[in-house]
Predict the structure of MBL fold metallo-hydrolase.
Amino acid sequence: MKKPLKTLFYLFSALILLATVAGCSLMSLSPQFGAEAKGARRQTIQQSPNYYDGEFRNPVETNMDLGFNGTVKAITSRLFGRNDSLTPDHMLPAIKLDSAKIAATRDTATVITWLGHSAFIVEIDGKRLLLDPMLGNRASPFSFMGPKRFSELPISLEQMPHIDAVLISHDHYDHLDYGSIKELTAKTTHFYVALGVGAHLERWGVPADKITELDWWQEATFQGLTFAATPARHFSGRGFSDRMQTLWTSWVILGSKDKVFFSGDSGYFDGFKEIGQKYGPFDITLMECGQYNELWPNIHMMPAQTVQAHQDLKGKLLMPIHWGTFALALHPWTDPIERVTAEARELGVPIATPRIGERVILHKKVPRQDWWLE
């Protein structure tokens, strides 16, 4: 190798090494990236039937490799495609929630309140739950870059009343937010998460005795409720080297009268039928609908699949989620809700389409207006 080429090679290698060291140092020093499972938690993970060859696996074979052509297409579409419809031209309003009123009310009915994206307040049997409470401004580890929220929050973290339990589906940034967890720690009785996710929470100051980690098909009881972690078809990871190192899950919430299903993130698979056979029928299903693309069809559902999964679960009322807050894919922001409502109406599937912050009172009040057209 000639001397100039050799020098360039060594210089390039040194730059790669420095970038790698800097990246690892950043992740180690920055708490928002979470923590690696160690000790007894690591042993529990390794004993899971869903963990082998050093990582968690989906219940069915799931190819997530875009390949060279797919990667180029994704990048060029983001950089050069028409992106004016990915987000609304104004901040989406939300119906503001009264913290004092929420705290004082223990409704006998099951009440579902959408906080945007996949975040919910679920009031059931007098208990107040939070699902995937990502209430930050960006779905990113950084405050200055990454997908930015384009919907108002119906309630701030500071105003949030006491929460009996928080349920988290997986550790992606649009579902598990460092700042939100830090704010919620003192006002939450208990956290229920998938295997491995507890390590992130402990690093962020949540006491170990307030965390329960579940594998698929495991159940936990909480003040008269039953929570079941059920399979999903997705993946996990918050950094460069932790992909598939924590589990991802959907959640079944069983009350004395009502049953709620929360999909988290998932591609379509036959597991929805199995969940429906074991735990259904469900009074309401909160089903992922949004952030899809033909380049990653295995990890997010297309709108027609959302309706099919709801039917597989033996759901009575469908509520589409995972849209209307962040632009994480390349479709227009209204595309998910337009397509899923059209499919549901064609098949005669009851569907709820509340505004952000609007209460859905099961068996009593189900909002169905097309507010996104306004």
In short: Residues 3-29 form the longest helix (27 residues). The chain has one domain: 99-373.
